[in-house]
Every structure is written in C-alpha cells, then in structure tokens.
Amino acid sequence: xxxxxxxxxxxxxxxxxxxxxxxxxxxxxxxxxxxxxxxxxxxxxxxxxxxxxxxxxxxxxxxxxxxxxxxxxxxxxxxxxxxxxxxxxxxxxxxxxxxxxxxxxxxxxxxxxxxxxxxxxxxxxxxxxxxxxxxxxxxxxxxxxxxxxxxxxxxxxxxxxxxxxxxxxxxxxxxxxxxxxxxxxxxxxxxxxxxxxxxxxxxxxxxxxxxxxxxxxxxxxxxxxxxxxxxxxxxxxxxxxxxxxxxxxxxxxxxxxxxxxxxxxxxxxxxxxxxxxxxxxxxxxxxxxxxxxxxxxxxxxxxxxxxxxxxxxxxxxxxxxxxxxxxxxxxxxxxxxxxxxxxxxxxxxxxxxxxxxxxxxxxxxxxxxxxxxxxxxxxxxxxxxxxxxxxxxxxxxxxxxxxxxxxxxxxxxxxxxxxxxxxxxxxxxxxxxxxxxxxxxxxxxxxxxxxxxxxxxxxxxxxxxxxxxxxxxxxxxxxxxxxxxxxxxxxxxxxxxxxxxxxxxxxxxxxxxxxxxxxxxxxxxxxxxxxxxxxxxxxxxxxxxxxxxxxxxxxxxxxxxxxxxxxxxxxxxxxxxxxxxxxxxxxxxxxxxxxxxxxxxxxxxxxxxxxxxxxxxxxxxxxxxxxxxxxxxxxxxxxxxxxxxxxxxxxxxxxxxxxxxxxxxxxxxxxxxxxxxxxxxxxxxxxxxxxxxxxxxxxxxxxxxxxxxxxxxxxxxxxxxxxxxxxxxxxxxxxxxxxxxxxxxxxxxxxxxxxxxxxxxxxxxxxxxxxxxxxxxxxxxxxxxxxxxxxxxxxxxxxxxxxxxxxxxxxxxxxxxxxxxxxxxxxxxxxxxxxxxxxxxxxx
Length: 844
Prior knowledge:
The protein is of the alpha+beta class. Helices cover 42% and strands 22% of the residues. 32% of the residues are buried.
C-alpha cells in the first residue's frame, strides 16, 4: 500500500505547483497575442498583459466584465462571436472580429479562437480565447479586392461595348457605374454628330419621375447649362455635395459628380452620378475618372462606328457591317478574344489568342475545334454552353464550380481555371463568356475573353510561401537566441562540475549525460539559426570541388556501403564566396537526406558545374529579386523513393519530416535552405514519386582569379592570466558562469548587467581595464555602443562580442564587421578562457 505523503512533501508539492503556475503566467504574458479566460457568462476571469496593453486598460479594469462590453462596447453578445458558437457546439471555434473599442487609429481586425474549458466530468466551465491582430493582412486583402474590383469593372465595360447592342449598351454601362458609385441617379451620354449631348442611358425612374414639360434625351449645345454643361465645356471634373437649385418638376438633386469623357483633348461624352446617400469623396471622384478614362477610347471607337453606320440604310448591310466592326474590335483588343456562331464554328480568333495558344486564326477559324487550343482531348468550351443556352446548374456541374454567373453582364459566365495541357507546365486562365444576340434577342453566337493569369497566381503563391518561411525563420531565430543563453550555463556548469568530480562515477555519469544533452540541444539551435539566417558566418573564397573531395571519405562512412557514390566534378569550376563550414554542412545534410531516401541502397551522385542564370530562370521560379549572372551549381541526386508535390512544397520548413517519430529532427533540409539563402544563393528540389530526387544549389561565382586562402591556426598554450576583464551580460546565470570561469583562470573580474551599469562600474574602478567581454543585445545600452563609449577611456582595451545570433550592430547579413572579435554562444569554460587569452595576446 502506498504511503501517504508527509506534510513537508505536500508543502513541497504545493510550492512546485505555484512555480509551475507562475511560469505559465510568464509565458502567457510574453505572448504577442491577446489571451483571456471567460466563465460561461462570457465574463473575463483572467487576461494577459498583451490584452491590457491593446485595450489601454489595466488587467484589473478588464477582469470581471463581459467581453462584449470591453471589446465592442455592447450590452449584448457580438454577432458571430466564437465563444457563443463554442457554447452551442462545445467545439473550438474561430472568427475574424472587428473590435470597435480598440479602434484607436483606423480599423482593427482580430482572428479570435475560442477553446472550451471543461471540468473532470466533461461539463463546460468557461472558455480560453486567443486573439491575434491581423489588421495589416485584412487591409491588404481589402486593397487587393479593390484592385480586382476595378479590373472587373474595366473588363465588364469592355465586354459590354463588344457584345451588347446600341440600345442597351449605354444603359448597361450606366448600371455598372451606378452600382460602383452607390448612386441613385446617373447619365451616360455622348456628343453626337451635331455636337449635341445625347443621353440614351437615362434611367426609367428618372424619366418617369421628372415632371418638367420639355423632357428630352438630346440637348443642343446652346442649351448646355449647370454643372454638367460647365464640365463638358471646361473639360474638367466638377462636383458638389450641396443640394442643387433645379427647375420646377425636376428631380431633387442632393449631390452630384460630373466627369467629361475626353479623347484626344476633346469632350466626347459625359458620366454623371447623383444622390449618393452620404455624398461623394475624393475616392469616388477618382473612381469615376478612372471609368471615364477607360471608356474614352472605346466610346470614341464606338461613336466612330456609329457615324459610319448612319450612312447605311439597309438592315442587312447594317448587320454585316456591325459584324465587321465587332471583328475589328475583337482583333484590336489586347485581351485574347474568340467568337463562335450558333453552330459552334469559330468565326473570330484575334492576334492575342494566337499569341496565347500558339494556334493561328488560319488553322482554327471555320472549325469546331476551339477545344484543341486548350485541351489534349475534345471537350466543350464555356462559349459552347452559352450558345446552347445551358442552365447555370449544368455549367457549374460540368466545370466543378470553376465558373459562375456574372453579376454585371446578363447571361455571361466567368471564372479562373487551370489547364494542365497548355504549355510546358500548364496555365491559369480567367475566362469570361457572353452570349451574342441579334435585335430580336436571339442568341446567334458567343464571345469569350481569355486572360493569362498564371504569373499573378504564381506570384501570389510565392508571396504566401515566402511570408510563411520568413515568419517561421523569425520564430526559430528568436527561440534559438534565448536557448543559447540557457545552454551556455547548462553545458558550462556541467563541465565545471566534471572538473570537481573525482571518485563518484555515478555522479560523473549523470553530469556527462547533462553535458551531452546540452550539446545536442546546442546543435539543434545552430540548425535553427542557420535556417533563420541569424548565424554569424565567416565567408571566404572556396573551391567546391576541393570541399567535396575532402568530405568524400566521411560521406562513405556516413551513408553506408550499400550506396554507391559518384562524383562528376567540373575541372574548371569557378570559385564561390561562402562559409566553408556551412557549405560542408550542406553537402553532408543533402547526402544524409539521400541516404534516408534509399533504404534498400542505390546511387548518390554529386555534380558541380558552371552555369549562367538569366531573368527567365528567376521569373519561372517566382523570384522577384532577379540576380542574373554567373553561378556555380552543386547538384546532389539519388535513386530513392522520390516525393510528391505536397511534400516538395514543405520540404524546407523546419521540423517537417516524412520519417518515423524519433528518426529525425526535421531540421536537415531547412538548415540547407537557410545556409544557401544567407550565402546569397538559391536551392531547388526536383522530384517525382518513385523517380528519385535532385537538389540543385546555385551560388554566385566569384569574379576574376581569386584563390582560396590558407587558414592560419594560432594555438594558446596557457589560457590563464591576471588582467582585468569587464563582463557585461544581462542574463544573470550566464554572467555568473563567465565570472566564475575566468576567475578560476586567474583573471581579475568586474561584472555589469547592461551598458549603463558597465559605465558606472568602470567609472568607480581606478585601474586599467584590459578586456571588455560583452553581450551584443541588452536593454538600455547594447554592447557596440558600450565599447564605443569605453575605448576612448581605455585605448588599449580589447573587446570580445558574444551572442547567440546575428544583430545588425556588429554584423551585416550575417557577416562580421571587419576588425571585430566575435564569440558564439553557447561556449565551454576552456573555450571562453582561450578566446580571452587570444584576444589579449593579439597585437592587431
């Protein structure tokens, strides 16, 4: 029977619980997200410091109040509240919220996650909510939507001009303008052949509600007056948000904007909108001017065509000439455009279509093989469905929801679709198809416009991937930096303890295990720093071939006898400027990855070559910062199991692995990615399932005939000394460890916890200070500024900067500034003593 714990044991357990809770509080308060705990009445029970900071309140002022009162200044729950949903479902719920109470400047959007908290009996007792500020993301998405909306308006108007009859064209264009401008009334008019203003687009409600006696849709030039007349004559935009004085019977006008449509310096028409509920602002004016500028060349072409049409008297000649004009409009359109008739025969195939598909009009016009330009096998196009008057359900089902009905053009459908058979890698196309009708509203054909949006799609995906990798890198670098301080203390104190342990072998074995675990953790932090590009590097001119030959024997021992290693090295290989140790790690990591992909054995091929990368290479890979030029290529290939597309997309992410639990850290390839990026190179993977894998690394080739320099090794026999060393480190454990180590080697030690404290200590110390050992990043005053302040007082003082990751104070893109001494964390007692002795003995 288990004995009951003693009072002292219980007291110790309570104390440990308090410490655990305190540690959790520290972690939660350190989070950049708002973290809160509610009871089932949505009353705030606990909140972290971030929540108080965001709300500009104290935690005391937050706790005890309902969340909807604090965040939204409401008396009832918020619409879409994730906590309310979680209360109903008992599940974790997410919702993006707009918190008015936090709108100190502009808009504020938060991604809220509500997690139910249940007791041991499974009863709901409250919620934990995590809220992340995504304002920048939401506003960026809104800006993108605005841009897409503007593009859609342009496309819709262009399609209307191309496809809609004269009787409906002005009205449909005006309808798009009114919807875009959120206006009740409007006019889209043009200057006719007599120089008068014709307004065929006047809406039915304007015509019916207007009670003036001489209603008309054509206004002679001598009748032009008011704001719209002045705008046409002065050729400039005019607007007013004040009520207009209008003739008796005229519709009341509370506000209006008039934009003349100008082409080649002349007014050819007008766009007028009126009675927006809240008046017009600068953005409205800019939007209407944009639409007018877009319409101008199209309207001018239409007016020119109309003037020619008026010269024709017979209906058949008018129809034939209308078809010719439509053909010219299609051919002159920069957007790929095709037309089919009611028998699905292609009647028009413009130059832009030829450029997009590689098929000439001579090959395809007059046939029913429009599908052959886009698919490997016969398949109906969207335009075919339009001609056949297919239902919306039929179109959506056939194309699996990729096309939807247009909201702006009657009977039209649009959507983005990926066509794998186009080009080498397939293309993303945005297709809009509209019916062509005669004067009796009978469908006589269809028109389709096709825009290649592959590059935009690739840029969006590359941007998404780049942001994800940068975010992961920032997190990894921060974690590694904090852990390096802890690991220095753990490993260092373990080594100091080992020096004192002589007889107790069991104690020595335990300390050895602590030391080895710390060294293993230090190795992991170095890999994290390599991925996040926060590692201090020592680049030099190196020969990749020499490095490969030197590591070949080690590779054979590492990967095993069942794998054949083949090296195909370019004899005249150019040199590269990189960190030799890092490149050696790249080769080793890629080789180990290849070994793991060949469990039954196989062939590992290492190749080098000189190559030139042009702008097309960078565009194909979605790299915006184009760096065309001469490169040295390193390729590592295997005959292993290969990988699919999904695996390739995540292969360079830290901790991503396809191996079994305990078989790998998932840091090998992410380390390769970070190292190559930090050395200004690029790395890509090429693989298919069952077809093996090839990693290609490209590093910039060194110009000229630069040769690798031989390294000089300086050994220190006795690391001890009696000089005065000032240690400046904000981490108490690390500061104490360094002090004890250097004191044990005979040095006189001064200590300070930051730059300001160090200035005080040095001012009180009357003897010379021979060496400053300082952390780089500290509160109040960093190490670089401290050194600059002290060195005029102690001209002979040496300086050693110690840090666990790069900082712009002493490095640039990971490369140490010239003339500075850097000591990387974590370090050992002997390593610290030797570094101090080397710095003191260095005459330079």
